[in-house]
Amino acid sequence: MAFLYLPLAVIVFYSFNAANSSAYFAGFSLRWYDKLIHNDQLLDALSNTLVLGITSSLLALVIGTLIGYGMYRHRARKLGWLIVLIYLPIVMPDIVFGISEMCVLHQHRSPVRHSRPQPADHDHRPRHLPDSVRGADRLLTLRRSRPTLFEAAKDLYASPFQRARFFLLRH
Question: For the whole prediction, is pTM greater than 0.90?
């Protein structure tokens, strides 16, 4: 884990450097952050980035949840190919990272040491999921729930909003 986070820690440390160069550390200074706060172009770019990120995350959350709900409602159909298409973008970066890490370790002839599994290793649910994946997680939750509950809520005159709130947003 250190080879992932150590470069970021060095960058954060040198962001407080009083010198113009990162070749040596001249002391702590907030000069660079003062320049950042007073740069209107960077602040406009930051606000555009935040608006775009929040909007796309919310849109992906809604679309992912609707896809999960639709797959649950039409679960009698064979939709295995659609599940593969949904999970492919989620799994692919991990596969590429694992292969590249294996190549680096093989190039340096480092033996891979297997540690004992920790209690957290037994939880197979991803910890840091983007919002679009939460819709697929809702699908798995819906698949584990009993289909008769949805029909019973419909028979008891629950509105579509109440059923969606109970079945999709209960976690």
Answer: no
Using the 8-state DSSP alphabet, how is residue 154 labeled? H
Q: Give the C-alpha separation, 69 to 139, whole Å.
A: 6
Encoding tokens for residue 100?
């590249």
Joined together, the tokens standing for residue 2 give 């250190």
Q: Give how far Cα 98 sits from Cα of 2, 57, 94, Å.
A: 16, 26, 6
Reduced to 3 states (helix: H, G, I; strand: E, B; else coil), residue 17 is strand
CB 26 within 8 A of CB 97: no
Of 79, 56, 54, 57, which is closest to residue 142 (Cα–Cα)? 79
Q: How many Å apart are CA 145 and CA 84, to the nearest integer?
A: 21
Task: Output DSSP code: residue 170.
Answer: -
What's the token pair of residue 92? 């692919």
List the chain pLDDT tens, one digit each, 171 residues: 788 899 999 989 988 988 887 778 888 999 889 998 999 999 999 999 999 999 999 999 999 898 888 877 777 777 777 777 777 888 888 888 888 888 877 777 655 554 444 444 444 444 444 544 555 555 555 556 666 766 777 777 777 777 667 766 654
Would you kindly state where each structural domain of the chain is located, as residue ranges?
A: 1-38, 41-110+129-171
